[in-house]
Design goal:
Strands 1, 2, 3, 4, 5, 6, 7, 8 and 9 form a 9-stranded antiparallel β-sheet that branches. The protein is of the alpha+beta class and 138 residues long. The N and C termini lie far apart (31 Å). Strand 3 and strand 4 form a beta hairpin. The chain is globular, with a radius of gyration of 15 Å. 18% of the residues lie in helices and 37% in strands. It has one domain: Beta Barrel (Lipocalin). It is built from 2 helices and 9 strands; from the N terminus they run H-E-E-E-E-E-E-H-E-E-E. InterPro entries: DUF306_Meta_HslJ, HslJ-like_sf. This is META domain-containing protein. It comes from Flavobacterium hibernum. It holds the Pfam family META.
């Protein structure tokens, strides 16, 4: 698991450095996405207090994000090449011992996110396999 996380970190850094000078493929994150979101649904299951001591959140800015796994603070960078496409890169997390049973699953799904949509004030994140998480406005 640690090897995968380190590999993803280095692969993300190497792809990020391939943008050339003034012409870059990165776009600013959509304004309607730039706010705080509270996790409601993880892998098709509605969250309960048994899953997390407090529900995870993500606060999205123009090229970065921060938040909480329900126990540990997280932060990282965002990449959006086109509308509806989104990646969470260089994710770092505190390492406090927690009772959040689904914390690792939440972090892994953030790392594999490739797309999003917003409907009825809800944020839906997807990866290559489909819908992974949904959030409500914070």
């Amino acid at each position: 698991m640690l090897f995968i996380a380190v590999s993803l970190t280095y692969s993300c850094k190497s792809t990020k450095s391939t943008s050339t000078g003034n012409s870059t493929v990165e776009k600013s994150i959509e304004k309607k996405l730039q706010q705080t979101w509270i996790l409601e649904n993880l892998n098709g299951k509605v969250l309960t207090q048994k899953d997390f001591s407090t529900f995870p959140t993500i606060s999205i800015a123009s090229s970065t994000f921060s938040g909480s796994t329900g126990c540990n603070a997280i932060k990282g960078n965002l990449l959006s090449k086109d509308a509806g496409l989104l990646q969470f890169l260089n994710i770092t997390s505190e390492t406090k011992k927690c009772d959040a049973k689904k914390e690792a699953e939440f972090l892994q799904l953030l790392r594999t996110t490739s797309g999003y949509s917003i409907e009825n004030n809800k944020l839906f994140l997807t990866n290559q396999f489909g819908l992974t998480m949904s959030f409500k406005k914070g």
